[in-house]
Amino acid sequence: MNEGREPPGSLMALLVPLAASILILTLFFFFMGGDVALEIFTTALVTATIAGKFIVVRGLAQQGFFDSPFKLVPLIVYLDLAVALVAVYNMGFLYRLPRLGAKLESLQAAGCRILSRNPWMRKVTFLGIVGFVMFPLSGTGAIGGAFFGRLLGLSRRRTMMGIAIGSVLGGAGMAFLAGVSGDALRNLQGNPVLLGGGVVVVGGILYWLVRRAKSLAAED
User: Fold this and answer.
1) Do 160 and 129 contact (CB within 8 A), yes or no?
2) Other CB atoms closer than 10 Å to residue 67's CB: what's the count?
3) Would residue 217 be called left, alpha or beta, if left means φ above 0 and alpha means ψ between -120 and 50 degrees?
4) pLDDT (tens digit, 9 = 90+) per residue, 20-60?
């Protein structure tokens, strides 16, 4: 990838998650019944819009298809990958926004130069994306991982790999904690410390990237 140049958006990346989701729900409808298909759809909707990885707590008390927190892990991973696919392969649309697009392009160029000049940071950045997606902090997740992975100079493939690994580890970890101490995990949802932690993480990454971009610009 050329420095600072985000490849054009991919229509296929938009259509594949939608088509796959329809196909999966259709298969569940025919083989396991409408109730199960509806449960999967509503749980996926709640997971994607409100609960995030904390959806695993519901598996402890809910009777039905998702009667175990570990059954929710594949759903979490699938949703993260679907969202990541759309975000990673269509970030170019953000670059067309007035003012903001040019700044994002500059930040991505800085990220690419940082990694090219410091190869060791590529592994650190990759592990950072894994951790960013894995921990259930406010503002983190597949969208945040896709956004920062690309801005920090990772390729689309490595960004997707980091998000996938982080999603599996995060979902499985939350399911394990839900089985061990579900009540304590319920109390964490919406915890102001976690919310503040997410803001600090996101703000810190942006601050470092902006400062580094200015430093590189001065060196050039």
Assistant:
1) no
2) 11
3) alpha
4) 999 999 999 999 999 999 999 998 888 887 777 777 766 55
Q: Which two tokens stand for residue 42?
A: 């509503």
- pTM (two decimals): 0.74
